[in-house]
């Protein structure tokens, strides 16, 4: 640590006690590498505040001493968004000690949770009040509320509930000068200028440090119905979704899986079998939930699927007979990444285009990549109804030369750009995608992002090197 | 006009033809005074672009020549938000010629409308496709999409559909340097930094000029059920709302009216009668709609009201027997402002607090105002379920001394501030409320608004004197 960093650490420890700072390098080490192992940072100490007051004191002092801070929650960023720079110039600030759920109100359908609350802990706590916080994703056992807000996280329930942005009613944050923004009152109507809460969602910690949030709750799920369908094309899958949405309330999962990707899962993951007997070019996993009568939901789905079959929107469908079968259906979807890994490296792209354009994009971009790079295979799977798929490219021989991988990614992003889509649908920009963000986003938007960053954080101390260079 | 203004006007007319500028002062005059007649501005010409390209050319030139621009739609701002400064330094730019509905897609549930499209025209057009754009308000025959976005308009359907912010899927805007931001692709998931679309909603034209938007559509309403209830207190009214929301899908209107306010309507508005025979301290107008079976909806409401009565959540209720009666119920609610005017001047306050706090606020703040200012009567009516009421203060003798009116308003806003609420729930800040916004909003938020304004509009040419001094 340099002299300023030492001064900050000493001052904070003197004021808030030994729990407020970690200096043992062995304790810091696990938090210096990102989840995917792509980035490695250095931080001489890890600040671990236990309250908003402590965060404000730290940021205030960091501002005075010009010390950059890198906020971190569960350290599950897919883009190196929470990894400090490699030169040791910044200090990590971990929000994990701020893990109180300040309140849960079933009547108001709101909970106030601190930034360090782990997503699955929030799920459990609100369930005790008969409520549900609908956001969920693979990393729910480690991802924190603060990180989910900073990255505007997605997950599998976006179709019905939107991304984290829609689930945040208000935010408490420490701004770059150490002042506190308290938006926890979560006014339903408040037209006093620019919406600061919404600006902080998805800002990746570059405009301030989220310390707590008021979150929207929904009635607990009483029953779910899970379906596996075979369809002939992504186009047919999207038609099926629209057809069903007119007839069934509560559809919240709609995941598309290509035939070859399912085959990969069946080959590499033990104890898996296809829910359908025939061969289908594309598969769809559908889930609907209700807080009311499960039999009514199931009846609506059966009727909807029957009508869809008659109208030519699907080839075959299997409704999970029980919870175990529903779990087995989801296990197929959730095992894709593992199956790909068993096969060899694949190159992941988290991309989106307009929902209506996604079927054509999947087919055309997939064909283009496989044509331009012989020996590759595209696995485009995931959230069709959100216009967002995980566009993974496998090498059929399981091996990628780094240069070739880069060329493939560049082509994928070029195709996304041509389609007016986004090079980051749900994972953010972090360190990983700054180049592609700048290359393929309209200049007016990139300029606005830079101007806002420099206006709110003129000293550049908030998560440096992320989103904005 | 000064030399620069003349140069801009001439250049634009030469390039885009006579339709692109209005210089006849009689044609400009109606647009120089705000809807409530509180502000009077001067503008030597009114720019009337017909396309995004024209707007971009105007802004680009205005930026070069340092000429402030005041964007205007239907000129129905309640806060002087679209009235130019009184010194003639700025030029009006009216978006009303940009009134194309570029597309309506029932499949995607989206429409793309230009800024100058009048709200009721959009309603009619999407209805042809079996769709509904749910935002509606009194000024729907003149308010434009651009203005509704710039002010994040509310209205009576917020309970179910949210404010304009929730209904905007993407925005096209000309930024202060003349560059065009095109967010019309309306990606459902797009995590490339700060959300520029959301920042432009409610920005009152101070960060750029909205030229078009992608708007969310919903299935057309097939039937509605309208109910008038008598309750004993705002607290009971909110309990009733929560009770009904658990049992009836599609509740979208929930308007509270105090006894004395209803009495004022019955006295001053011809052909009105109370829907209920008995006396009630508070009244509630409830409306639910469905795109499906109207009989099912009505049955659900009847059952819900019956259960609510048994549970002690209401004293009496009348369900409108037909459309004429439903209209008569709404006429009572919509005539409050007119009844107040017939009585004498009233001082209006558009305020919000947390939904859960609103019942207590209405009673306590109402009593405090009437106690501190003898001879006054508070009409607190409107959107209880949004935590937003129109807090009007009448003089019982119908006459207000200007100084006394100011003192009353100051007290009302102080009480809102103490309750952690907003001095502008749905009308924005404009010119009218800058002082109260700065006085009663946390410093971190005011500072952020100013910093963002100066960063994106460093020359200060975008709607000067609104929101930010």
Automatic annotation (TrEMBL), chains A, B:
The keyword RNA-binding does not apply. GO terms for molecular function: catalytic activity; FAD binding. GO terms for biological process: respiratory electron transport chain. InterPro entries: FAD-bd_oxidored_4_C, FAD-bd_PCMH, FAD-bd_PCMH-like_sf, FAD-bd_PCMH_sub2, FAD-linked_Oxase-like_C, FAD-oxidored/transferase_4, Oxid_FAD_bind_N, Vanillyl_alc_oxidase_C-sub2. Keywords: FAD, Flavoprotein. Its cofactor is FAD. Belongs to the FAD-binding oxidoreductase/transferase type 4 family. PANTHER family: BLL6224 PROTEIN (PTHR43716:SF2), D-2-HYDROXYGLUTARATE DEHYDROGENASE, MITOCHONDRIAL (PTHR43716). This is FAD-binding oxidoreductase.
């Amino acid at each position: 640590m340099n002299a300023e960093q030492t001064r900050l650490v000493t001052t904070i420890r003197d004021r808030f006690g030994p729990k407020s700072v970690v200096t043992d390098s062995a304790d810091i080490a696990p938090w210096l590498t990102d989840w995917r192992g792509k980035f490695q940072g250095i931080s001489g100490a890890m600040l671990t505040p236990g309250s908003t007051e402590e965060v404000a004191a730290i940021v205030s002092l960091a501002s005075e001493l010009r010390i950059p801070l890198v906020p971190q929650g569960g350290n599950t960023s897919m883009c190196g968004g929470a990894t400090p720079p490699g030169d040791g110039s910044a200090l990590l600030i971990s929000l994990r000690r701020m893990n109180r759920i300040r309140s849960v109100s079933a009547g108001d359908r709101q909970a106030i949770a601190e930034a360090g609350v782990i997503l699955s802990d929030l799920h459990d706590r609100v369930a005790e009040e008969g409520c549900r916080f609908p956001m969920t994703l693979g990393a729910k056992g480690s991802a924190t509320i603060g990180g989910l807000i900073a990255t505007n996280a997605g997950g599998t329930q976006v179709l019905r509930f939107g991304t984290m942005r829609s689930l945040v009613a208000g935010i408490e944050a420490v701004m770059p000068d150490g002042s506190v923004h308290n938006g926890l009152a979560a006014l339903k109507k408040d037209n006093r200028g620019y919406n600061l809460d919404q600006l902080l969602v998805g800002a990746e910690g570059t405009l301030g440090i989220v310390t707590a949030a008021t979150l929207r709750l929904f009635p607990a799920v009483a029953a779910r119905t899970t379906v596996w369908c075979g369809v002939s094309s992504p186009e047919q899958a999207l038609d099926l979704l629209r057809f069903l949405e007119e007839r069934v309330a509560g559809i919240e999962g709609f995941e598309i899986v290509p035939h070859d990707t399912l085959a990969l899962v069946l080959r590499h993951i033990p104890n898996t079998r296809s829910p359908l007997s025939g061969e289908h070019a594309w598969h769809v996993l559908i889930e609907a939930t209700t807080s009311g009568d499960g039999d009514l939901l199931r009846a609506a789905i059966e009727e909807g699927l029957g009508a869809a079959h008659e109208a030519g929107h699907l080839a075959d469908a299997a409704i999970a007979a029980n919870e175990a079968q529903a779990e087995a259906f989801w296990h197929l979807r959730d095992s894709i990444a593992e199956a790909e890994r068993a096969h060899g490296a694949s190159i992941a792209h988290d991309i989106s285009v307009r929902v209506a354009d996604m079927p054509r994009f999947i087919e055309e971009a997939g064909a283009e990549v496989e044509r331009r790079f012989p020996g590759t295979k595209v696995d485009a799977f995931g959230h069709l109804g959100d216009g967002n798929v995980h566009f993974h490219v496998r090498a059929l021989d399981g091996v990628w030369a780094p240069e070739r991988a880069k060329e493939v990614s560049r082509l994928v992003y070029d195709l996304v750009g041509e389609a007016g889509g986004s090079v980051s649908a749900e994972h953010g920009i972090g360190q990983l995608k700054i180049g592609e963000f700048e290359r393929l986003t309209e200049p007016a938007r990139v300029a606005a992002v830079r101007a806002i960053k420099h206006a709110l954080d003129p000293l550049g101390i908030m998560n440096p090197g992320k989103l904005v260079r």
